[in-house]
Predict the structure of CXXC-20-CXXC protein.
Amino acid sequence: MKLPTCASCQHSFTYGEAMRYQFSRRKCPACKQKQFITKSSFVTAGIPSALIVFVLLPIIQIFWGPSFMEYFLVVIGLFVFLTLFLPFLYVFSEKQEPIP
C-alpha cells in the first residue's frame, strides 16, 4: 500500500499529511494546489465503511451478543482502525469530480 501523491507536482504525501487531509487541510504542502479525492477512491474508501456498518456489526450483534459497552468499544475500535487505514486508499486529482 502506498500513500497518495499530488496530482500537480507528484509530491508524495507523508502519513501525517494524508491524515490531516481527512480533517482539514486540502492543499498540497509542496505546491499549495488544492487537491480533491477522485470519485473512484471515494468509492473505494467507502466500501470498507459500508461493509463494517452493514455486514460486520450486525454479524457481531447476532452471533456474539455483546453488552452495550462491549458493542460500543468494538464500534469505536473499528472506527479508529478505519480512520487510520483510509489515507492509503486516497488518490488525488486537480479537478473536483461529482460524487453521487
Notes: The beta strands are 36-37, 92-93. Residues 17 and 29 are 8 Å apart (CA to CA). The first strand starts at residue 36 and ends at 37.
